[in-house]
Amino acid sequence: MQVYALKRHFLGITLFFGLGVTGSWAQTPPPRLEILQLKKAFENHKESAITHRRFMHSDLQPLIQKHTDQFEVSLVGKSVLGKSISSLNWGAGETKVMLWSQMHGNESTATMALFDLFNFLGGQGEEYEGVRKLLKSQLQLKFIPMLNPDGADAFKRRNALDIDLNRDAISQISPEAVILKTVRDLFQPEFGFNLHDQQIYYNVVNTPKQATISLLAPAYNEATEINDVRGRAMQTIASMNRLLQELIPGQVGKYDDAFEPRAFGDNIQKWGTSTILIESGGLMGDPEKQEVRKINFMLLLDALYTIATRSYTQYSTDQYFAIPDNGFQLMDLLIQEMQVPVNGSWYPIDLAIRRRETEGNAGQSFSGSVEDLGDMQIFFGLETLDATGLQYKEGKVYPKPFESVKKVSMEKAMELLGQGYMAIQVKKDRAKDVHGLPLAVLKLASRFSGGWTTGATPNFFLTKDGKYEYALVNGYLIDLDRIPKEKFRNQIY
Question: pTM value?
Answer without folding.
Answer: 0.92
